[in-house]
Amino acid sequence: MDAQLRQRIGMALTGAFAGLSFHVLHLVLEREWLAERPAMALAAFAVVFFTALLGMAGPLPLRRAALSAAGLALVVSGLLALASLRFHTAGAVFGSAIPVLAMLVLGFVPLPFLVAAQQSHWRDYPLLFLEAWTIVVRYAAAWLFVGVVWAVIFLSDLLLSMVGVTVIGALVGNPLVAMVITGAMLGLGIAVVDEMADVVSPYLVLRLLRLLLPAVLLVLLVFLAVLPFEGLGKLFGSLSAAATLLTIAAMGATLVTSAIDQSDAEASRSPVIRRAAQAMALLLPAPAVLAAWAVWLRVDQYGWTPDRVFAATVAGLGLGYGALYALAVLRGRGWEARVRQGNITMALALLLVSALLLTPLLDPQRLSAQSQLARLEDGRLSPDVLDLAGLADWGRAGEAALAELEARAAQPGQEALAARLAARAATPLPATGDAETLRRDLAAVMPLRPETATVARDAILASLDTGELADWLTMCRTPLPEGGAGCVLLAGEFWPDTAGEEVIVLLRDAGGYLRSEGFGWQQGLITRRSVTPLSGQMPDPAEAEAMLRAAQAGTAPPMKPAALNALHLGGAELILLP
Fold first, then answer.
1. Could you tell me if 235 and 272 lie in one domain?
2. According to its UniProt record, what is one Pfam family this protein matches (predicted)?
3. Cβ burial, residue 474 (10 Å; 0-12/13-18/19+)
């Protein structure tokens, strides 16, 4: 067996094992075989480990890639577990995008450094540049191959099913088999792409990106030229405008990097591209400064929130890139080499900031809660605009801030704060807790019609994950305007020709509108079913309230046949919807 075949088999088996591992993890999370926090850390470890392993295998031998990937995964999963301690439940850490983005950065950005450290030197820019882009291209090409494989599988199943052969469909319908096939084909695809490094290389992507540089530069120049005449009112104080500016800055930095390539020998020879790269490098501070100013004005007006902490850190990174790029050009000859070294510096800064966002040193929830208290204390914030909903979502730090506000409200002269907290107390907070607790609490508050439908209720609640259980419980606990739960479960013979009862769950959301969930049983397993009004129009809030009251008032669902006739043609039934 030659080395090429061994590499292909090794990568395919690695991918297959990754698929098997993710299937097992899915079962662990779904069936709660582990406590929530260890299960989340284990899932994070597996995601980072296999992503890094498949990304580095090829440039590194499989065993060395596995050791490096394991060390990286251990660090990232540990940081995520540390960040989850900010909340009572581990899943609550994903209430914002910050942990996910931090994990992506910490899982991908170190890979070129790990490869370079074992092949040459960890600051070897040509190798870092090539490996970074190669990993992106290898993954993109391999996932495209996976998509083609599944297209072939589905078409083969469709063809064979025409002659009564359904073995392929039965196999790939098994989630375990599907995950293993996907992983194996991804590993095999990466191995083959790595063999074809001279053909499937990042140079095509880099050459195409260079062509975009003059166009993006022109757009930025027009923006900066028109901005003084249009004014800054639409720009400052808006996080969406800041996000757009930071995205343009990131795109500009990427295009400059693609133009100067890994060394002077590979850099673009086109005078137009080179001048455009210089101009873009000089202009990068402009969108970064404008974005940072927009974020700061928002913070100065309303205080910190986790989203603003994240936006400020990204703006700071944008300022770093802009300053390094502009200074590199202003210093004259050799600016390309200085930009390349600046990329290494900023990559390390990006890693540091991403890690800090998962530690107590840069805890967005704690900083946000302290900001709200400080602004209330010095009079910049009045009790009527205090972000109580935000504090309730900011984990343990938010809870501590709310407890401090409760103590302050009991003091003389704090009547406005006391009234605001009393109004908040009338509105239930989002439900939290583990799945078992949520199921028990939901069973206690959800009205049943008929009241004997406990078996159906328990089976349905057992099929829901923690997030949906919390969502349902929050809606059920939110009372109707004149009292009563904001939900009801209705069980009955909705399908007379099918054995057993079906269930419709009605839930009233925060806006007063009705949400409906349908459930049936097929071969003893719960299946989701769509629920829709025959009129085609969902009820408005007043109608939703009336429907819930009517459903809760009776002892059984008010059932009668629908006023429809079906057109029977052969073995098919056709209905004309109203």
1. yes
2. DUF4153
3. buried
- Residues 306, 405, single domain; the answer is no
pLDDT tens for each residue of 375-427 = 988 888 888 778 887 888 888 999 999 999 988 888 888 888 888 787 666 55
Rounded-to-integer distance, Cα 112 and Cα 521, Å: 50
Asked if residue 430 is part of any domain, the answer here is no
Extended beta strands in 33-113, E state: none
Judged by DSSP in three states, 197 sits in coil
- Measured CA distances, 289 to 236, 256, 270 (Å): 11, 19, 30
What is the enclosing helix (H) or strand (E) of 490? strand 487-492
Of the listed ranges 153-157, 464-468, 555-559, the least confidently predicted one is 555-559
pLDDT band at 226 (very low <50, low <70, confident <90, very high): confident
- What is the overall mean pLDDT for the chain? 87
Q: Which domain holds residue 28?
A: 3-195
Each residue of 501-526: pLDDT tens digit? 899 999 988 777 888 999 988 777 88
> 258 and 160, same structural domain?
no
* CA angle in degrees (0–180, nearest 5) for 225-231-235: 95
The Cα 130–Cα 117 span in angstroms is 14
Q: Scan for tokens 């006023």, then name that residue.
A: 563
Beta strand extents in 408-467 (DSSP E only): 448-449
CA angle 61, 65, 66 (to 5 degrees): 120
356 in the same domain as 209: yes
Provide the whole-model pTM.
Answer: 0.75
| Exposed/middle/buried for residue 308 (C-beta within 10 Å: 0-12, 13-18, 19+) | buried
Task: Return the biggest CA–CA distance within the chain.
Answer: 85
Within a domain: 578: no
Same domain, 379 and 305: no
| Domain count across the chain | 4
Is residue 484 within 8 Å of residue 492, measured between CB atoms? no
Q: Check whether residue 188 and residue 210 sit in a common domain.
A: no
State which of 377, 407, 425 marks the end of a domain.
425
Say yes or no: 68 and 35 in one domain. yes
362, 378, 409 - which closes a domain: 362
| 185 lies in the same domain as 247 | no
Q: Residue 571, Cβ neighbours under 10 Å: how many? A: 5
Q: Which two tokens stand for residue 457?
A: 């209720």
Helix axes 306-330, 98-108, angle to 10 degrees: 40
